[in-house]
Design brief:
This protein has two helices and no strands. The chain is an all-alpha fold and 108 residues long. 0% of the residues are buried. The mean pLDDT is 87.
């Protein structure tokens, strides 16, 4: 009887050690999976940050291009709307005569 009890005790101890080893292996596997998931999350976050940075850069470039276009359009409009200056005639009596000629040209 004592020998059987001893065998059962030894078998129970062996079983307990096997269960403990399985539990430790499972805990290690879980820790590894968590580590991998954290690394993956960081990589995804870094990629998202990079995409956001690139998008912001594109928006900034577009805004800059738009501002340049607007400035060019404003300059073009100003040139079209600018009134020709009265030219000074050396032979016809100065700026007043040139301005008068210009007015007559426009009236015609």
């Amino acid at each position: 009887r004592a020998a059987m009890a001893e065998e059962r005790k030894a078998a129970a101890e062996q079983k307990r050690q096997e269960v403990e080893a399985k539990r430790a292996a499972a805990a290690e596997a879980l820790a590894n999976k968590r580590q991998e998931a954290e690394e993956k999350r960081k990589a995804i976050a870094a990629a998202a940050d990079e995409k956001r940075r690139q998008a912001q850069e594109l928006r900034d470039r577009a805004k800059e291009a738009s501002a340049k276009k607007a400035a060019a359009a404003a300059a073009e409009k100003a040139m079209k709307q600018a009134k020709p200056r009265a030219s000074i005639s050396l032979f016809g009596g100065g700026a007043d005569a040139a301005a008068e000629k210009e007015r007559k040209k426009r009236a015609a």
